[in-house]
Amino acid sequence: MIYTDKEKYSDILNSSLTYLENSGFENIKADAEGYETPKSYLKKGSEINITPDIVAEKEGRTHYFELSLKSDKPKLLKSKWLFLNTLSNLKSRRFKIITTRGHYKFTQEMLEDIHLEDKKPIKI
Questions:
Q1: What domains, with CATH codes, occur in the chain?
Q2: pLDDT tens-digit readout, 2-55
Q3: What is the pairing mode between strands 122-123 and 94-99?
Q4: End-to-end CA distance of the chain
C-alpha cells in the first residue's frame, strides 16, 4: 500500500496485524498506532521513501508484508514491491503480499505485470 492510502485502509491494516499475531509472528512493526514504525529506505536521487507496511519475525526469519489494495498509483506500488522483493532476496528474508476481498484480481494482475506470479497472496 502506498502512503496516500494508509488512512483509507487502516481497518484492513489492523485486521492484517491481528491475523499475523494469531499466526505466531513476533516483533511486529507497522505504521499503525501501538506499533513501532518499520525502517524506511530512501530512493537515491529523489525524495521517495519506501517503507514496508508490516515487518515481522517468525522462527528467526524476518518477513516483509505488503497490503495489496487498489491504488491510484499502480506504477509506484509496483516499484515498491520490486524493491522489497529484491531486498528480501539479498538479505535472506521473506516478502509476502496480503490482500482482501475485492482486491484479488487487482493483486494478481499487478503480480503478473512485474513477473512475480509465483507469489501466492495471503487472503484475509
A1: 3-123 (3.40.1350)
A2: 776 777 788 899 999 999 999 999 999 998 889 999 999 998 888 888 999 999
A3: parallel
A4: 15
